[in-house]
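Final report, closing paragraph on structural work. Over the funding period we assembled a curated collection of sequence-structure pairs, and we close with a single example.
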Amino acid sequence: MLTDKDNFTLYEGEEMLDRVASTEIFKEVGATAIPTIHTFGLSSGAVTEETYRYFADKILHVLRNETDIDGI
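Its predicted structure, as stored:
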């Protein structure tokens, strides 16, 4: 059974930063976190190719539009 994107909860942008514990650490040290996605799901096995591409494309879209990235 392949898992698709409907089996995941997805947070993007500023909402994503609200869900990630490390956001506060970044703020404490003066680093700027560029939000991509935060997702989790109750998957059952491998994900479909479409699901992989969907999430990968969302991450890559943000990274391609940023010009000043020091780390991922």
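The chain has a mean pLDDT of 89. The radius of gyration is 14 Å. We thank the funder for supporting this effort.
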